[in-house]
Amino acid sequence: MNTPSQSVFQQSFDLVIFGAGYAGFAAARAARGRNVLLVDRQAAPLSESGWSFAAQTGTSDHPLWREWWTMLADRGGARDSLIDGAIAEVLASEVCRTQRLSMLYYATPVAVERCGDLLASVIVGTKAGLQRLVARQWLDATETGELAQLLDARWKPAAPSAQFLNLYFRHANWAASEPGEIPAPGLRLTWNRSLWPNERRLSIELPGDWARPRRAWLPALRALHAERGAEVAEAVLTHGSVVPFTVCTGKTPAMLPVNVVQSESAATLAGRFDAGIGAWTDLHSRPQADGKTSDRPVELPAVAREEAAEVCVAGLGTGGACAALAAARHGAKVFGFDPLPFAGGIGAGGGIHYYYFGVKGGLQEEIDDRVREVMPFFGKQDQVLGFHPDAKKLVIETLLEEAGVRVQFGGSLCAVNRHGGRVTDAIMAAPGGAIRVRASAWVDATGDGDLTAFAGASFRLGRDGDGLLHAYTQSSGRAHDDKGKARMQMINYDSGFCDPTDSEDLTRARLVGLSHYVQAQYSASERPTYIAPAIGLRQGRQIETDYTLTLDDLIERRTFPDAVGYTGSHYDNHAKDFEFESTDAMFWVWICLQWRTNTACEIPYRLLLPRGLDNVWIACRAAGVSEEAHHSFRMQRDLQRLGEVAGLAAALACRQSLTSRNVSVAELRENLIASGALMLRETGEDGFGLRLAESEFQHASSHLAEWIEQLRADESSLALWRLYRAGKTAEPAVTALLDNPDELISWRAAAILAMWGDRRAEARLQRAVATREAGEPDREIANEHQRWYYVPHWLPAISLLRLCGTAASLTVLEQLAADPQLPFNARTATALACAGIARRGG
Fold first, then answer.
1. Do residues 716 and 593 make contact, with C-beta atoms less than 8 angstroms apart?
2. Residue 685: pLDDT band by 50, 70, 90 thresholds?
3. Which of 45, 291, 411, 581 could bridge across to 428 with cysteines, CB 3.0–4.6 Å?
């Protein structure tokens, strides 16, 4: 059992199990008392349930199966040989978490290290690169033999004999519905009841060699509507198989070291559970390796195969799918890969299936139009919030195929090679071994800037105050009945914090996220319909690029000569502790009170270009934005726009043998205007103009009187920000208000002076702290979380003192700290203020 302070890569385990499905889960349960690590390249405990949504369990007499079944049944998640997939995933994850089983997600085996006739260690590809796992014994519980393929080069996994997809429908009031087969050319469809009375299941049986199972969705849905149109007319498809449930027969045993066992395949969930226990029973009495850890460097593995393309897109998520499509449509030969088994990212598989701000148009609009075309088969528009995530998966996969993009799902980046300023090739960890990819142009759409970071680009990670990143979300689906109609919902909330560049911390975050869905009792309405396969990461690395977009750019609606699009949102930072945010962020939210204010600006091409690299473009949230600007410039539409620009630019660079910086911005803009991605309109649907005016800040002197008048007004406004940014130009007028008898006016003047580091603000800020000054009346609060954006004056006054205070402020801060009822935020702000005063020698 690993401890929080010790990495799994620094330990020696009794047993490492690859594959967290039913076989691996059962083996880990059977090996209780041993030091066991359960590893999976996805974050999918019991993926047969939570990702394939296989409902029929089969039977087992093993006590551990009965214990597991009873746990599910007692909470409402199992009955009559039927099991609810989302509940099974949640409870299995909770068993692993609470019983402190060591877990490692997002890790793919790519190489093995032997000691004689024993397996000593396995090299895995992770978000942090190649790392080594050490154990005495090993169990391959993956259905495709991910470890076995590395140990026996001649062994190949058996081809599936059949594949099953399961689609689930919710109806507010099902009429009499009899199970039965539904005719469909080339498909075997069965209509069944499910565990829940308001739910039905469409089972799709496919031949084992069906190449892209998701292509069967539309024919199956058309057949269902043709056969049972009246019955499903008011139903909504709430969830369906992310991957098919596969049945394999005739597996040939691999030639494995004596301390390695491969579990057998089985056609049922209970059968796989029994197979995992059987594998452990076979293994635990076998010889063991010495389990000695090693400090020797991990070397690049031999590759199983190579791929070559003109443009390689690393990550086919929100931005990457658009990048691959844009590059291919402009004549480039494109290879794209993604660790998930689908394209589309957070909107397709992260549970966030609607747009929050951003600017529409271009390639993303074409994708959205195609999604709207197939939406009637998934449910009526008023039954689905935004767009249907499964419809988007299907549409994007179809578009990529039509464009000729070669795709590798289940592949994650683990190493990059460069020559000078050019990336030459990359190593991808995938089932069956490492893959080397060679390309002339590269699009980093990994989300966290993995490709550019592996290539040596500089970056920032987390806010300056304490390194914390924006909260992540572990979203899920939910359905409810409203006014006689079934509706599909999504659950999106702040689940916690994690470092997305670290597979171990990502694993912890996934386990914690799923723990929030544990209930004493589940019901037809009070349950998650699915757990989003992709964890909702809002922030990771910010790569240093040729231009860094700032909060001021957004506030002032700045224009750029190399503009390739528009962005618009508000400062959507979910933090509660703005004393740890940058001073600009603290000032914008706590002083200007502008958290909700819409901001917008043009997107310069330069923020896609990582410094020091000549053939790489960034098409993800890792693009060149400041910590403050990131909270506005991270929306799905923003990243889809970056994807289209990056893919187009990469294709032009290949066609014309150019570097990223030599691509003609004029030609880029011509193509983007033609696609509608760069629409020159006067106003936008979200309340911000798309044709941006010249910044008022450039004419500070002519606007000074107007801004001072706005400072005197009851409501805070952009004027406070503009006066702060005006600096010396505004200093006499602002200083004159410091002793104004109106407390609100003098407070605002002191806050601006403090931002300039002016000690004349100190006395006014001390008074605000000493008297616990309340300040402005409460604003309209949309939800409880937003109370942290409208705080009493005395709290930001503490933070402002760290900018301008002297030793004279330490007395009032000491008196404040002596209050036993002082909120935690005020205590941390006080500590930071004292540190700031000491650092400046105040």
1. yes
2. very low
3. 411
Q: How many CB atoms lie within 10 A of CB 693?
A: 9
76-121 pLDDT per residue, tens: 999 999 999 999 999 999 999 999 899 999 999 999 999 999 999 9
Residue 260 Cα distances to 287, 288, 292, angstroms: 9, 9, 17
Whether the Cβ atoms of residue 122 and residue 16 lie closer than 8 Å to each other: yes
Name residues whose C-beta falls within 8 Å of residue 559's C-beta, 6 or more positions apart in sequence. Answer: 601, 602, 692, 694
Burial readout 92-107 (b: 16 or more C-beta within 10 A, e: otherwise): bbbbbbeeebbbbbbb
- Token readout for 401 is 């195929």
Q: Which of 287, 234, 365 shows the shortest CA–CA distance to 117?
A: 287
Give the position of tokens 């449509």.
329
* pLDDT given for residue 781 in this prediction: 67
C-alpha 444/C-alpha 41 separation (Å) is: 20
Which residues lie closer than 8 Å to 248 by C-beta, 6 or more apart? 143, 157, 158, 159, 160, 161, 208, 265
Which of 702, 695, 721 minimizes the C-alpha distance to 710?
A: 721
- Mean pLDDT of the residues in the chain: 93
d(CA 307, CA 153) in angstroms, rounded, equals 19
Hey, what are 593's tokens? 């009170």
Burial of 438 per CB tally in 10 Å (0-12, 13-18, 19+): middle
Average pLDDT over residues 349-364: 94
With contact defined as beta carbons under 8 Å apart, do 237 and 394 qualify? no
Joined tokens for residue 819: 């209050």
Burial class for 155, CB neighbours closer than 10 Å (0-12, 13-18, 19+): middle
Name the token pair of 30: 């059977």
Single-letter residue type at 809: S
CA distance 795 to 231: 59
pLDDT in tens, 464-505: 989 999 999 999 999 999 988 999 999 999 999 999 999 999
> What is the distance between the alpha carbons of residues 171 and 157, in angstroms, rounded to a whole number?
40
Q: Which two tokens stand for residue 708?
A: 């001072």
- Return the bridge partners of 746, or none: none
pTM given for the model: 0.95
Residue for token digits 């171990």?
A: 504
Which ranges constitute the DSSP H helices of 575-726?
583-586, 627-630, 636-656, 665-675, 700-711, 718-726
Q: DSSP of 325-350, one letter per residue?
A: HHHHHTT--EEEEESSSSSSHHHHHS
For 276, 299, 304, 398, the CA distances from 144, given in Å and listed in that order, are: 14, 25, 15, 25
pLDDT in tens, 286-300: 999 999 998 899 999
Compute how many other C-beta atoms are within 10 angstroms of the C-beta atom of residue 366: 16
Tokens (6 digits) for 552: 């001021």
Cβ 212 vs Cβ 406: under 8 Å: no
Distance CA 677, CA 558 (A): 18
User: DSSP strand E in 214-299: where?
Assistant: 236-240, 245-248, 260-262
Taking Cα atoms as reference points, which of 270, 613, 570, 566 lies closest to residue 423?
A: 613
Contact by Cβ (8 Å): 769, 813: yes
Residue 656: HSE in the Cβ half-sphere, 13 Å Cα cutoff: 16
